[in-house]
Amino acid sequence: MNNNTGLYVHIPFCVQKCGYCDFYSCDDKFYIIDDYTEAVIKELKYYKNKYEIEFSTLFIGGGTPTVLTEKQLDALFTGIYSLYPKKNFKEITIEANPETITEKTAKVLAANVNRVSMGAQSFDDNILKTLGRVHNSDKIKEAFAILRGNNINNINLDLMYGIPGQNVSMVISDIEEASSMGAEHISFYMFTPYPETPTGKLIESGGLKMPSDDDITDMFITGAGFLEGNDYMQYEIANFCKPGKECVHNLNYWDSGKYIGIGAAAASYFDGLRYVNLKNIENYIKQLKKNDDPAETSEKITPDMELKEFIMLKLRTVQGINKADFRERFGYDFDGRFGKIIERPLKGGLLTDSADAIALTRKGMLVSNTVIALFF
Predict the structure, then answer these.
(1) Which of 161, 155, 118 is nearest to 139 (CA)?
(2) Which of 80, 113, 76, 119 is nearest to 100 (CA)?
(3) Residue 200 in contact with residue 245, Cβ under 8 Å?
(4) CA–CA separation, 180 vs 123, rounded Å?
(5) Whole-angstrom Cα distance, residue 19 to residue 23?
(6) Tell me: the pLDDT tens digits for 309-364?
(7) Residue 346, CB-side half-sphere exposure with 13 Å CA sphere
(8) Superfamily designation of domain 5-254
(9) Do 5-254 and 303-373 come out as alike in CATH topology?
(10) Which letter, b or e, does each residue of 209-245 get, where b requires 16 or more Cβ atoms within 10 Å of its Cβ?
(11) How far apart are CA 128 and CA 286, in angstroms?
(12) Would you give the distance in Å from CA 304 to the centre of its chain?
């Protein structure tokens, strides 16, 4: 059983919101950052007073947490570590974008975190323009060098495939660049055109053309193979790392571990409940000023939800669902319950089934949602 609890802190501010982004973030509210940080620390105090939790990992995500000034970052870390000492965290990650990394910022990060996750997305300047990114490829390399120069020795680079205008050789070129820089971890995501985003609407109207499904499949299969050829081990659908450099915080999610999310729009899975905070930054701050709970929705985790979550998360990992673990957790055999359901995806080469475990093949990973839907 997983006894780890992760702490996630959401910083929803960005230099400029990307046209494809579906996360809750904004690029026009910098004036409210100090009030927001104060509210975040206040929410953390609420947990400190209510529960005896020992967090094993801290992940500060966004948005772009590194848009905060050095002084604001310092205040955030000081507030967190005054309640939960830094030495107790096994891993401390912060997300960053290349345009926000300066020598001064890197010094603050080096003093407070041991892992940085940077949104590169691509090293092709035209592709970066299509995505509406603020940085160019030179800026990625410069930011990476600054982090390294400040002894940050665990860096993830996010890369995307399946972007309009992209082909297989461009994807391989991106991977070559990221691996030659020596990133310890590479997140290799499929571009998703969310219909409500500006980029999604542009694709819908024909202003941007998505690569074909066959090309996207080729990008993933070839890209994943290339990553493995460069000593990056795949451990989850979109995540590859050098040996021993998995993201411990995310491993906890995929292991159905508990986590607390702090900040506007942050989600928690704790104490038999799943709850999500108010999305609106101003409303979130107001709630905490009144000492009110900032959760907007809350639901009790039913046994059925727990089962669904377990299958969905475990199938995202390369190991898949361990049948002995499944039996121990739910009290019955996986094959007895789901044997019939998995026949078709097994025949289609989307799943592998051994005596010990069931897992998605690489082909299956591309259609993971469709395969997972068969179980419910």
Answers:
(1) 118
(2) 119
(3) no
(4) 12
(5) 11
(6) 999 999 999 999 999 999 999 999 999 999 999 999 999 999 999 989 999 999 99
(7) 12
(8) tm_1862 like domain (3.80.30.20)
(9) no
(10) eebeeebbbbbbebbbebbeeeebebbbbbbbbbeeb
(11) 37
(12) 25
Do 184 and 242 meet the contact criterion of CB atoms below 8 Å apart?
A: yes
Distances (CA, A) of 308 to 3, 142, 376: 20, 43, 8
Give the right CATH number for 303-373 from 3.30.930.10, 1.10.10.10, 1.25.40.10, 1.10.10.920.
1.10.10.920
Strands (E), 21-171: 57-62, 91-96, 115-121, 155-161
How far are the Cα atoms of 3, 5, 358 from residue 314, in angstroms, in the given order? 17, 18, 10
Tokens of 269: 């899975």
Could you tell me the residue ranges of all domains in the chain? 5-254, 303-373
**Preceding amide of 63 cis, omega within 30:** yes
> pLDDT by residue (tens digit) across 77-128?
999 999 999 999 999 999 999 999 999 999 999 999 999 999 999 999 999 9
Question: Which amino acid type is present at position 273?
Answer: L
- DSSP element (H, E) containing 175: helix 168-181
Q: Give residue 1's pLDDT.
A: 41
Stretch (H or E) spanning 334: helix 334-338
pTM for the model: 0.94
Rounding to the nearest 10 degrees, give the CA dihedral for residues 20, 16, 275, 365: 30
**Element of type H or E holding 141:** helix 137-149
- The amino acid present at 334, given as its one-letter code, is F
Q: In what order do the strands lie in the sheet with 185-190?
A: 233-236, 239-241, 185-190, 155-161, 115-121, 91-96, 57-62, 5-11, 258-262, 267-270, 273-277, 295-300
